[in-house]
Write a structure and sequence with these properties.
The structure is a single chain. The chain is of the alpha/beta class. An eight-stranded parallel sheet has the order 5-8-9-4-3-10-11-12, sandwiched between helices. Helix 9 links the parallel strand 10 (228-234) and strand 11 (253-258). Residues 349-358 have low confidence and may be disordered.
């Protein structure tokens, strides 16, 4: 009730600030059914939408006003013998643990065909589900959640471990913190409290003789105070279209789901496009409602909709040309006017009467003063002017972490020079700045607030980035550091006028051409080379396990990881040119991977550490990455990342695969497991730890501190005490706010394990102080 009032107050203030009349959104406080009924019957009320308990719904329908109300759910998930059991178990546990089962569409029961019942139960146990089989404990559990024929409000939305404590249920050491409590039963009706809606992570499990029997049991459960609401089926879609049709026709429900977690599938969004995203689900006239679909402005009919999980469209987007290897700049630039039709653009400038160009091609090089001072732009300028006869201007006004002032200055230079081609030469700052300068030069109507607007999926956003090439015909990026991968990615980071760093994301920001010439990276200072290399390694490891990772990106993530682990130390410590070239290539390869698969919470946390304590981004990544790897690699995550193709935890397997790829092995655990019979999970866990040890050992050999406090102590020694030291207490005081900001970071959405804010704080404590322990076990 307090949360509802708080939300209404926030919405009301925002609406008024946007020009809506005062009081357009209001919350009754204190609330009661009788007072709510008085408001609903008031002469100025024209329509009522009611959700909540039966008494509130009844009051709405007796108000004498047009009303839409919802009803109770009692969703049964059928699992037939053709279903992929790993996927079915993963999706059912995901649906049941989402918001601790409080969603009315959550799975209340699983009805499993006999042929796969025992295997299904075993996989539930392995996934963190505890079966309550002791008769006395079962009785206590029933009395705890179902009191006097009603749900006990004290257990609604509580975790399984909290409910187990309330019911004095003993859980085994193998499952100390269960995700779900399960009860096996055959009965449906008043004599069996577990056959009703539960609104908490308790699951009833039924055995069915065959598919027809499963339909009968699921139908009986739906009719047991869940009519009209939600049912779910896990089956082989390609083989069983007739079963899906039978399920659709026979179930007395209007939200009929196939191969999805029921709670997330029924509310629409990430798993299907047949249901409108909504948390208000109608149950139709069969359930006592005037609406059968998810609440939408035009949905007033009884419509029974079947929504099966769809393969989500995936993509691989990159510059149309990537040139690489030492001394490749000249040849790559010549393709602008010679060989490759995708890179060349023909005559520049306005055409004369004879159809020929009236002026030379104009090229603007965007860089910084350091690049000019080191002479790193000379080869590019010589090729463009001396060999290709182009008109060139150099703008060296890029600042570290470019601000909007810097961007606006660059745009003014573009207006003055009117370039046909823009070349960004430098580190991530120069490339990020050039991406945004080009965008605002061609589309000055865009604002940083528009560009930075949050999105759930990059291809579906409220404000779309406009197309380029209206003025600047090519953006060419030439990196001089080996870390960001910005030369091939759709990302840019810009600091607003009020000092806020905005990560911008759009495939409109992907450069047209990248030239990856390692000779430009040879002059990097050792510490910079170490930090940028560890940033590239973090890109590779995070994109490897992202929920968006695909068959197209995973090989790139693995190769980038191997190149960095193999060559970074030689590159940094000994300055070996071949090794430095390998790391330079690795950074771009990792960029191609995470530009399409995206990242995770290591970057969410690193962004906050960098902003709060002004530490290099690569260092911030190095501080958090191994803690995040251990956090992600758990078999039974508290919450799993949400994407249609990501159906069960895969991080441990992917980390283990890259561990093997870089040459690590699990000989010791295989011997302990008696050769080929060693448990796959044990082998994977061993390889994950071996990979983490390898990353931490590399960080140590590079001389990079293991914690933030150690970094500040190192800086204090280097400054010989001339700076005010940053204390442990000062760092700790900021961690709550940083954890909250990290949760809201755009990178968090594609992490394979969806974090709690409290877990992010623990990870920050590990990165800052080296203690606190990584939250690898699901919390109550």
């Amino acid at each position: 009730r307090r949360v509802s009032k708080f939300v209404c107050d926030v919405l009301g203030k925002a609406a008024v600030a946007a020009g809506a009349p005062p009081g357009c959104i209001a919350c009754i406080d204190p609330s009661s059914v009788s007072f709510s009924q008085y408001i609903m019957q008031h002469e100025k009320i024209r329509f009522v939408l009611a959700t909540g308990g039966a008494s509130m719904v009844h009051a709405a329908y007796t108000s004498g006003k047009p009303t839409i109300a919802v009803g109770a759910g009692n969703c049964a998930s059928i699992v037939d013998e053709s279903a992929n059991l790993d996927d079915a178990v993963g999706l059912i546990v995901l649906g049941k643990t989402f918001d601790n089962g409080i969603i009315c569409a959550s799975e209340q029961a699983a009805v499993v065909v006999d042929e796969v019942y025992d295997s299904f139960v075993s996989k539930l146990v392995a996934r963190g589900v505890h079966f309550v089989r002791d008769a006395a404990q079962r009785e206590r559990l029933a009395m705890t959640f179902h009191v006097d024929g009603k749900i006990n409000p004290d257990i609604v939305g509580q975790s399984a471990s909290k409910i187990a404590q309330m019911a004095d249920i003993t859980v085994p050491e193998t499952c100390p913190i269960p995700l779900v409590l399960a009860v096996e039963t055959d009965e449906i009706g008043p004599q069996e409290p577990f056959s009703y809606e539960k609104l908490c992570p308790i699951l009833a499990v039924y055995r069915a003789k065959d598919f027809d029997d499963a339909i009968r049991k699921a139908k009986a459960l739906a009719l047991n105070h869940g009519v009209g609401h939600t049912s779910c089926l896990h089956t082989n879609v390609e083989r069983n279209r007739e079963r899906i049709r039978q399920f659709e026709l026979e179930m007395p429900t209007h939200h009929n789901l196939v191969n999805v977690p029921a709670s997330l599938g029924a509310i629409g969004g990430p798993y299907n496009s047949n249901l409108e995203p909504s948390l208000t689900l109608g149950v139709g006239t069969t359930g006592g409602s005037s609406m059968s679909a998810n609440l939408g402005p035009m949905q007033l009919l009884n419509v029974s909709t079947t929504a099966e999980r769809q393969e989500h469209v995936e993509w691989f987007k990159s510059p149309h040309s990537v040139y690489f290897n030492r001394n490749s700049i000249r040849d790559a630039l010549h393709d602008l006017v010679d060989d490759d039709p995708r890179d060349s653009f023909g005559p520049c400038g306005s055409d004369g009467a004879d159809g020929k160009s009236s002026r030379k091609c104009r090229v603007l090089i965007i860089t910084d003063a350091i690049m000019v001072g080191l002479g790193l732009i000379d080869t590019t300028v010589d090729a463009l002017v001396g060999e290709m006869g182009m008109t060139v201007s150099v703008w060296a006004g890029v600042t570290p972490d470019p601000t909007m002032d810097c961007v606006r200055s660059g745009v003014e230079e573009m207006k003055r020079f009117e370039p046909d081609v823009v070349i960004a030469l430098g580190g991530g700052s120069a490339i990020d700045g050039a991406k945004v300068m080009r965008l605002l030069y061609e589309h000055p109507e865009m604002t940083i607030e528009d560009m930075a607007l949050r999105f759930i999926e990059i291809r579906r956003r409220i404000i779309r980035f406009p197309l380029h090439n209206t003025k600047v015909r090519r953006l060419i990026c030439i990196p001089t550091t080996s870390g960001t991968g910005a030369e091939v990615t759709p990302f840019a980071v810009i600091t607003s006028d009020d000092g806020v760093k905005y990560p911008l994301t759009s495939y409109a920001l992907v450069p047209d051409i990248a030239i990856v010439d390692p000779s430009l990276a040879m002059s990097q200072p050792k510490r910079l080379a170490a930090y940028t290399g560890l940033d590239a390694l973090t890109h590779a490891l995070e994109s490897l396990v992202s929920t968006y990772a695909s068959d197209y990106t995973i090989p790139l993530s693995m190769q980038a990881t191997r190149l960095v682990l193999t060559h970074l130390e030689e590159s940094v410590v000994h300055g070996n040119e071949t090794a430095r070239a390998k790391v330079h290539h690795a950074a771009t390869i990792a960029g191609l991977a995470f530009g399409n698969a995206f990242l995770g919470i290591a970057h969410s946390l690193a962004h906050q550490l960098g902003a709060a304590f002004h530490v290099p981004h690569g260092l911030a990544c190095a501080l958090v990455i191994t803690h995040v790897m251990r956090y992600n690699a758990v078999k039974n995550p508290t919450r799993m990342g949400v994407f249609s193709q990501y159906m069960c935890p895969q991080s441990a397997e992917r980390y283990a695969s890259v561990a093997r790829f870089v040459g690590l092995d699990a000989c010791e655990v295989v011997r302990a497991g008696e050769g080929d019979d060693a448990d796959d999970d044990a082998v994977n866990a061993f390889l994950v730890e071996a990979l983490i040890d390898e990353v931490e050992a590399l960080r140590e050999r590079l001389g990079v501190p293991a914690t933030l406090i150690a970094y500040f102590e190192e800086q204090q020694l280097a400054q010989k005490g001339t700076q005010v030291p940053i204390t442990r207490e000062a760092i700790a005081a900021k961690l709550d706010g940083l954890a909250l900001a990290a949760f809201d970071d755009q990178c968090t959405g594609t992490n394979p394990r969806y974090p709690l804010i409290s877990e992010l704080k623990v990870l920050l404590e590990c990165a800052c102080f080296g203690d606190g322990g990584v939250p690898v076990t699901p919390r109550s």
